[in-house]
Amino acid sequence: MLPKDFMLGAASAAYQVEGNNTHSDLWLMEQMPHTTFSEPSLDACDHYHRYEEDIRLAAAAGLNAYRFSIEWGRIEPEEGVFDEAEVEHYRDVIRCCRANGVEPVVTLHHFSSPIWLIRKGGWDAETTPADFERYVRHVMERLGGELSFVCTINEANMGLQIARIAERYAQQARAAAAAMAAASQAAEADGAVDESQVQMGLNLKKMMENQQLQKAENKEAFGTEDPQTFQSPRSRHSDEVVCEAHRRARAAIRELCPHVKVGLTLSLHDLQPVPGGEALAAAEWVDEFTHYLPVIEGDDFLGVQNYTRTRVGAEGDLPVPEGAEVTQMGYEFYPQALEHVLRAVAKEWTGDIIVTENGIGTDDDARRVAFIDEALAGVERCLDDGIPVKGYFYWSLMDNFEWQKGYSMRFGLIAFDRATQERSPKPSLAHLGSYVKKPLG
Ligand code: GCO
After folding, report:
1. Could you tell me if 371 and 408 are in contact, meaning their C-beta atoms sit under 8 angstroms apart?
2. 155 an active-site residue?
3. Which family is it part of (predicted)?
């Protein structure tokens, strides 16, 4: 059973739900003619204007907590220029939570950054930790008194993971190019033309041309061909910038609001080695988690985010096993992963843990319910074994803008109509809420 003070809620991120975050880097990137985004975010779910309805729906279903983020580009649209009306907007959101008996858990940075920051070098620039601290101070001086839980940076380890994934794609592309060259040589030798190889070659050429055009568009928008956004692959150097930004933000929060519990969140995979993959799986875990232990030492909690397992072979991460159920994201349906990750984390981190994201993209809400039940059963087993899990936030409160994939991924407990913005709670919302409504503890 979940303990009485357990936070049970849902999560969102400003950029994915608010709409019209015109001062943020992603806004520019979405609008580029050769963008990698499948569609622009535009009004998103108009949560900026409809937060009250959304929070009420969550509260009515029984949820007692809501994790959302503050958009830095709204608060500080130009370097050093703060928009107090936007600060007041977030105060209203926080108060709306409280009025509905919902604990607000605020994330200060969830992937999107002000355009001016990226023009200064973004998450690679030595000046960014100080810029982040200035923004954090501004927010905490005004809103900190109304908050109890703050996440500084969402998925601080994301950049290194993207670097790893990018490297794997590059390897695959090199292998495909070599296979194509060999096949076309063989075809030339016997005088035949393999149409599918020709098509693959043309696609590859198109992709490379688009990349070149996008670089030119980046240069115009950000003054550099490879802008260091939060979602670009990061080097060890830029990873250090992120970690330093967290340390400085934490120190500022401690100084201004000693009552606030502060932490960051990490994206953690349930890394399962197949025979031969043990060394690589161990190395990936070090990159994803162990590497961050010195950074989070002194935090009040760790935010854990998990969606699936990853099987690791000697050569790298393996594809989803044949015949397995896959979600809209192409992830294996594997809700047991959360328990595995919590247990792995607890071996090295003895502080409090909050599951800040866990969820499934699917149109089949019955599978969402099954996913939640399985995941929460794992959380309960961890609690029984004394692992201090303080909360669980399902991703996401509502269907929303899934970055490059646009609106096609449906993670939400609430559906919305993009034309009318009408909300429709799915059965999974009441189901998740029923864990709180049951007599607890
Ligand atoms: C994440 C993200 C979310 C995603 C979610 C589903 O932290 O990765 O917080 O923004 O939408 O993970 O892919």
Report:
1. no
2. yes
3. Belongs to the glycosyl hydrolase 1 family.
- Ligand 1 center from residue 196 Cα (angstroms): 35
pTM of the entire predicted model: 0.95
Catalytic residue (choose from 155, 284, 332, 402): 155
d(CA 182, CA 199): 15
Domains along the chain? 7-159+236-437 (3.20.20.80)
Task: Please list the pLDDT of the chain residue by residue as tens digits (441 residues).
Answer: 899 999 999 999 999 999 999 999 999 999 999 999 999 999 999 999 999 999 999 999 999 999 999 999 999 999 999 999 999 999 999 999 999 999 999 999 999 999 999 999 999 999 999 999 999 999 999 999 999 999 999 999 999 999 988 887 888 778 877 887 887 777 777 777 777 777 877 888 888 899 999 999 999 999 999 999 999 999 999 999 999 999 999 999 999 999 999 999 999 999 999 999 999 999 999 999 999 999 999 999 999 999 999 999 998 899 999 999 999 999 999 999 999 999 999 999 999 999 999 999 999 999 999 999 999 999 999 999 999 999 999 999 999 999 999 999 999 999 999 999 999 999 999 999 999 865 444
Report whether residue 393 contacts ligand 1, using a CB cutoff of 6 Å: no
Label residue 191 exposed, middle or buried (CB < 10 Å: 0-12, 13-18, 19+).
Answer: exposed
Do the beta carbons of residue 18 and residue 71 sit within 8 Å?
Answer: yes
